[in-house]
Amino acid sequence: MGQRFDNISTWLNTYECTRSTTEWICEGLEIEDYVVQSHPDVSPAKWHLGHTTWFFEQFILVKFLKNYKCFNEQLHLIFNSYYKSMGNHWIQGDRGQLSRPTVSEIKHYRQYVNASINELLTGYLDEKARMEILSLLELGINHEQQHQELLLMDIKYNFAVNPFNVSYLTENYPSSYPCSASYLSVKGGLYQIGQSGIDRFCYDNETPRHKVHIDSFQIRNSLVTNGEYLEFIKDNGYNCPDYWYSDAWALIQSQCWQAPLYWFEKEGHWFYKTLYGEQAVDLNEPVSHISFYEAAAFAKWAKKRLPTEFEWEVASQELALSVSNNFMEKRKFAPVLSQIDFTNDNHLISLHGGLWEWMQSSYHAYPGYVAPEGALGEYNSKFMNGPMVLRGGCYATPEQHYRSTYRNFFNADKRWMFSGIRLCKDNT
Amino acid sequence: MGQRFDNISTWLNTYECTRSTTEWICEGLEIEDYVVQSHPDVSPAKWHLGHTTWFFEQFILVKFLKNYKCFNEQLHLIFNSYYKSMGNHWIQGDRGQLSRPTVSEIKHYRQYVNASINELLTGYLDEKARMEILSLLELGINHEQQHQELLLMDIKYNFAVNPFNVSYLTENYPSSYPCSASYLSVKGGLYQIGQSGIDRFCYDNETPRHKVHIDSFQIRNSLVTNGEYLEFIKDNGYNCPDYWYSDAWALIQSQCWQAPLYWFEKEGHWFYKTLYGEQAVDLNEPVSHISFYEAAAFAKWAKKRLPTEFEWEVASQELALSVSNNFMEKRKFAPVLSQIDFTNDNHLISLHGGLWEWMQSSYHAYPGYVAPEGALGEYNSKFMNGPMVLRGGCYATPEQHYRSTYRNFFNADKRWMFSGIRLCKDNT
Amino acid sequence: MGQRFDNISTWLNTYECTRSTTEWICEGLEIEDYVVQSHPDVSPAKWHLGHTTWFFEQFILVKFLKNYKCFNEQLHLIFNSYYKSMGNHWIQGDRGQLSRPTVSEIKHYRQYVNASINELLTGYLDEKARMEILSLLELGINHEQQHQELLLMDIKYNFAVNPFNVSYLTENYPSSYPCSASYLSVKGGLYQIGQSGIDRFCYDNETPRHKVHIDSFQIRNSLVTNGEYLEFIKDNGYNCPDYWYSDAWALIQSQCWQAPLYWFEKEGHWFYKTLYGEQAVDLNEPVSHISFYEAAAFAKWAKKRLPTEFEWEVASQELALSVSNNFMEKRKFAPVLSQIDFTNDNHLISLHGGLWEWMQSSYHAYPGYVAPEGALGEYNSKFMNGPMVLRGGCYATPEQHYRSTYRNFFNADKRWMFSGIRLCKDNT
Amino acid sequence: MGQRFDNISTWLNTYECTRSTTEWICEGLEIEDYVVQSHPDVSPAKWHLGHTTWFFEQFILVKFLKNYKCFNEQLHLIFNSYYKSMGNHWIQGDRGQLSRPTVSEIKHYRQYVNASINELLTGYLDEKARMEILSLLELGINHEQQHQELLLMDIKYNFAVNPFNVSYLTENYPSSYPCSASYLSVKGGLYQIGQSGIDRFCYDNETPRHKVHIDSFQIRNSLVTNGEYLEFIKDNGYNCPDYWYSDAWALIQSQCWQAPLYWFEKEGHWFYKTLYGEQAVDLNEPVSHISFYEAAAFAKWAKKRLPTEFEWEVASQELALSVSNNFMEKRKFAPVLSQIDFTNDNHLISLHGGLWEWMQSSYHAYPGYVAPEGALGEYNSKFMNGPMVLRGGCYATPEQHYRSTYRNFFNADKRWMFSGIRLCKDNT
């Protein structure tokens, strides 16, 4: 571990880059857009700006920068997300109740913390402190990258709730090319899953590297499209209990779900809310904003199934000859299928940079997993009681954030993340 | 009816005054403060700015100004509060989900409508149109005055929720003089209640004028103070079911109420959130922000009772030799007892300009009441199924809005309005 | 007060009669029918049997019968309904969770208390004790009579929930005669309302007798029929917000109400669940099982209004030349209109013995009302915060329980009681 | 497959045995005890009697017995539990609202179906029909055995809610011997998990047999005792967020959990409700009625972990030299530790016949799993979206129902089943 921590100035640069990227995401927002929280799961944009800053302040500056004075002690209550061992925190669903601190105050907070990080990193640090600080800085950077994606998820939701057709982006909506579907074979056997966590960054939940046996199976090259999903809808998929888990059926009945999130029908045609405003549904585009329940129902209807996270990890390493390049920094904020994806028949298309893919796996600790000591142990481990795993990455994921071992997770009913469906099937 | 509608320019002046007063109330707010809705009963400040404007647009301009083009057709959905006959409207509790229209757009909306009202009123109007328009304008002005008070209620609530000690006002908190309590007699008999609604403005719910018999009774000159209410708290008032209605007891148990809204205890001392930030509770000041349930429980504990709205109206006309002058425009935003109140022993102190007083009366139509035709019939009549009546007015009520026949009403559990307690008792 | 308390043996007889009537009501029930609680407002039949017994035990025997030993101390928790000053009590909505005590144990409890009451009343009692005991016995008898009606309400509800067509009665459903509607005039003036509470029994809430001024008005001779109510339904009454209070509209939208309780449509025809099983709706019969909200909406649709409780009390005394005789003991458990009602044009039909009539009055204390000391003060007074008043009586009210001053009350949304609509209108 | 289906008369005998065992469980109940449903998860005893009967009727008689006439067509609505493809069914949480059918009617229903099964099995059946019928009969018998355990779970819950100290059993509570804890090693490697489903009965969810790799680990011989769990409680385990999953912490905070279900403190001592009435907590006895959340929190506090279902299955086959014999038919309805368990150091104690053991595994389909066609596909597969797995069996599980491959499952927050904790740890 640690060669990657030799060069401090590179890290300072990455830090500054990441920080300014977050602000770049918010550039087009009005002050009012920073404040609202239109669903308890969604956070106000200004909260993301503050929370990511608080993370660096509390986990690095408070501990390592001599004589560091917190920007404002009271912000701790507001910007602590869920770290119980860090003290009380504001209720997540009530973040939208707070007009203060203002956006301007939070921007000052960001600058103050940035300056202090700069001071810390440009000052004298012994080997041990440097390693420890840069390791935490790396975590903080990855943490902020996660929130960049969350910011885009939440901005999309807040804008979509608004009855006005508000657009985050003013460019033309990117259209998708059609893509034929084929199934690629993966051999069964004993595989290594996860990472050691030593040579390069990964979250604790990707460790330890361990053996998993999988049977041979076939995985689809491409994601399920809106066009295919529409067939499911037209075939009465949302009204036939056969395709749904028991919990899922209760949910869609009580919530009257009849289509993915953001879809609406107008005069017999389907539209969806996008970051580019309202658009006619593009049938070539991979279907997005579906819950695990919908992904699983679709798979059952299609007489296929979803992969496990182990199958997916193996397949992504065996088959992904080239990865898509539709990452966040490209600012093409739709799960668009570009032509470049089709150059090779034998690889997984849109593996990264398309949509998060729902796995038929509940999120648990890997065998031998040990949570970090202290508050950072809460980062991942306290959620390891079985939400559903998503793998891959999406068009709102920063480029450096992709990894075939990455384990994202959400509850089975959530669908405001950029999620899609990759099918697989057993060899018979 | 109608002499008061002879002079158009006076009305235009009053209109403009009222409109700018609303904006004056919002002057110190940050953009973020206009957006939040920290409770379903509370509306964002920017919503009040828009809704009051919509009222003039929909009820006057759309009907009377030739070729009038709505500022933005889509605003109708957002700024219609509850007029079912005007079409769909946004859910009240979800107003805080909307970042758009922005404050700046709403200010343009206000200017646009102001200019159009000016155009309408300075153009040619025949007698009939003038009478009709000015009558609606008068209603719209009174409507906006109601929302001025609501704005202050809602700003107070939104600020109080914030864990930072945010102040709407930076001046010193006004302190109260002590006031002795005495009971004044009112003779029984048959009295006229309400108004004809012809010579001066009143809401439809104050009409028709009709006879009510009341028995002789005694009413207290002054409102119950924080000091007296604290005695009730210390005597375990919130934990003894004897004082509480059955519904009230269920409520305070489930909500863990132990004091008025905005009160909190710190190291054995009571404080409250005010529009001037956090303050030590002033024991001389009339108690405020109590629900009907608390008012009634206090009265029972004190072996007194609350007056009916008929008793109150009679008493206010018989006994109120001079009224308090602590109206909204004075910008003394606390239920302060000034020395001037004590010049005469035989009158009701703080009758207007102190706090709304909870009545032991459910809000129903007066005998012979007829609701206005059309959407404006919804203004008052659809709430006449028994919420509790409050009488008087408060320090956030505009001066011209006071009237001894005025009937305010809220559900028995609400307490974010500026409400207080006036006791009375039977002659024995 | 008190002459009526001279003859102990008459009272003992009345007591025994009342007690055995309660059991007579339950005669046809299966054991299982005594246990269920199909709605939080509804109580299991066995609970009524126990609670009415507990009332005599706690308020009379424990205090007056020397060496009285409670049947079972633990029953206190279960059978105390809501008397906070009597200690903890089981949650009302959870009464159906208790299989024990069994029906058989409760019947033993009844016998045990009956024997003890007999012992008390046949033993020596001085004048003071006799007066006090008989006064409480009278209250207990009236209390049990109230529960006889509640028993029938609750049995009806529990049976109606059952998907099987369960009948409480096996006789033929009694059919109604048609009845023409006319309006009778009542003169305005100052009237005496309520009772002194001295010469004959009444509840505390009917006292003190006091003066109320009413304007002249007209009241309809007969109740609104199912046929008339069906016109309201067909005229889209449940889907037009104009007729409904704001709270009512929210309720019927969220609950999807489209007809009175117990009504259901089958192949284009309306049926209802009755105590005689499922029946085609009888158009001549007065409409029943409607909430205050529905009564008020119907009245608005019909361009009439509901009477106040004061108007009703005056009218019932001025105009009710003869009362209906369809009381509980007749066991004709439907709001049937018999021919005998029509002998005189100038009286109110079905005043008693038909259906409880919703008043446009919220339930409050009369002027000068003083609640009894102790737990019995909770009997009525803690509900005097504004539920809606019903007047009259119904086919499930025991004969001796009728009184023109009687004040029944329920929340505006309830409709499992035997409630109906009597209209009135202003003189113009 | 199928040799076990050669002898019809053996199957008829097993059928009759199972059916009468169900009735034997209910023998001591009062009629009232059959009716109540004191929690939405719990069903009335009479419902279990009816539903198990309905299962035989619908899945066998309706299809195979010529001219079979259903006992009562209306029962279908009531006794269909959750088979959507069988038509509408009554809401699970509302089963306690139904007084009818009565217990007596349901007993007739049982007899009627028993007679018809007898008729079917004693009549002529060709090979194919016999195989199909007996296969379904076997499933129905296993289904009824599951409900025997559910009956005991639900009776316990219904009795425990009752404030009276009601006992299902009148014998003395069986006391437990102390048992030392040791950890037994299991070797890592590739193991076969599950069954083929051909030679002997198993549920579809135990198939197909497939390979799983596990690392070597150690598993504790005995279950965690009440005494050990009490240490966790005393160490403030329920009030320290470190031990709890995020969801779990939210739950125990909102529900104020401070001990296992059925535990209560009286004068500083812990008691619990048992099927033998209230008892002092036996410290030697394995702790029971804990949720997955509590099991996981205890494990974290103890610096151990829960096994996965694969580890457990392997361990149970490698190490369980002898199984406990505390199965349901013994009628020792407590998780008692008898002396016989300690004869051998190297085996797992209480593996079967003690308590269900919570696994660190979410319930999903095994690789290659195919759900049965038709309604029986709903039996297990629609719950395979991640509830938590329990393994083993308990003192209320019928003897023939034990199997090391058996997969029980409940949501992580449930604790009215007879659940306990077996710890394991990694080799280091």
Explained architecture:
4 copies of one chain form a homotetramer. By secondary structure, chain A is an alpha+beta fold. Chain A folds into 2 domains: 3-161, Up-down Bundle (Four Helix Bundle (Hemerythrin (Met), subunit A)), CATH 1.20.120; 183-426, paralog of FGE (formylglycine-generating enzyme), CATH 3.90.1580. The first copy, chain A, has 9 helices and 12 strands. Chain A has a 4-stranded mixed beta sheet with strand order 10-9-8-11. In chain A, strands 1-4-12 form a 3-stranded antiparallel beta sheet, with helices on one face. In chain A, a hairpin with a 2-residue loop joins β5 (263-266) and β6. In chain A, α2 runs antiparallel to α5 (127-161). The model of chain A has no long low-confidence stretch (mean pLDDT 93). Chains A, B, C, D: Residues 183-424 form the Sulfatase-modifying factor enzyme-like domain. Chains A, B, C, D: Keywords: Iron, Oxidoreductase. Chains A, B, C, D: This is Ergothioneine biosynthesis protein EgtB. Chains A, B, C, D: InterPro entries: CTDL_fold, DinB-like, DinB/YfiT-like, EgtB, Sulfatase_Mod_Factor_Kinase, SUMF_dom, SUMF_sf.
